[in-house]
Amino acid sequence: MKKTVIAVLCSTLLAACATPTRYVDPAADDGPVTMTMDYRDFERAADAAVQDLLTSGAVDNPSGERYIMVVSRITNDTMQRIDTDQLVKKIRVALLRSGKVITTTAVGLNGAEDAMNEKARELRNSDEFDQSGVQKKGTLKAPDLSLSGKIIQRNHKVEDEQQVEYYFQLSMTDLTSGLAVWENETPIIKRGSNDAVSW
Amino acid sequence: MQENTMFRTLSRVMLVALMATGILVTSACVPLEPQREYVQRDDLQVDPEIRQALTVSELLQSRVDLPGGGSLLKIQFSVKGYQNVDMEWKATWFDAEGMVVPGVGEGYNTARVMQNQTRFFTASAPNERAVSFQLHLREDR
User: Fold this and answer.
1) What is the pLDDT along chain A (199 residues), one digit of tens a residue?
2) Rounded to an integer, what distance in angstroms lies between the CA atom of residue B116 and that of residue A135?
3) Using a CB-CB distance cutoff of 8 angstroms, which residues of chain A are in contact with residue B106?
4) Cβ-based neighbours of B60, under 8 Å, separated by 6 or more
5) Which of B68, B74, B103 is the closest to A55 by Cβ?
6) What ipTM does this complex have?
7) In B, which residues are within 8 Å of A26 by CB distance?
8) Candidates A54, A95, A191, partner chain B, best to mutate (most B CBs within 10 A)
9) What residue of A is the nearest CA neighbor of B107?
10) Nearest Cα residue to B92 out of B140, B138, B139, B40
């Protein structure tokens, strides 16, 4: 009985000391900076890339129509296990909102990003489906532009601190000519304690 | 007895006078913070915490013509540091109706401005609909 009371008291005390879980407002996040890449780094890299891309005029179609973009390979050459979609999705959303570019999900290096593009077409000639609603042949749009890139990480020791450099490199290729019509590199450099882990 | 009381009163008066002089001399030695001029503008907000450390010396805007015939609002501002300061800045864009035009994110850009250094920053609107902006500068948190 005595032991149980002590255990309950200890756990209550420990729980009282624990940092409470709370939501973070990205617009007013005064939390400490991490040596690894966090959402703020992806946001900064994407913001810098989109501003540069839009003002460059590379994605402004003289015909007034939106360009169709496909996402090619974005290589993660860092020591961290990250999903490059954290960067790509922000760029895609911003470009779509700009009214200049729309992304196709019917083409991808490893097949269609959305496999339903193909699956929906397999319904052709099926007696079970009203054929007036089934996608006709030749309706998919081919991409005009391709987005590719690489995220690089370099670590350095600076006296008793470490410096971690991240480079977000992006290219936009005109698929008609194969020429890179826009290129950008956003460096994000952090310096901190040697004890901090950057992988 | 009366002399004694007078002496005490005089001593007190002298002590108070000495203290007042000391305070005045000490306060005269404290370097005064120069008052920076801050002009209130709709398109610029500088938090009071960093007004003494820097000043926005210019804030320009122009529209960048695009091949498709449209144009994008672009701003450039320069910041002069009176001392080394870490600051954050962010531009918010508005359309003709005053509604916010969303960009990539909501975060602030960080920058370090050294003493006597003038740094130039640029930002461009995320959409052609943007016709005005508000620039916010605050202390680095």
Assistant:
1) 667 767 666 666 656 667 899 898 888 888 888 999 999 999 999 999 999 999 999 999 999 899 999 999 999 999 999 999 999 999 999 999 999 999 999 999 999 999 999 999 999 989 999 999 999 999 999 999 999 999 999 999 988 899 999 999 999 999 999 999 999 999 999 999 888 776 6
2) 65
3) 26-27
4) B75, B76, B77
5) B74
6) 0.78
7) 105-107
8) A54
9) A27
10) B138
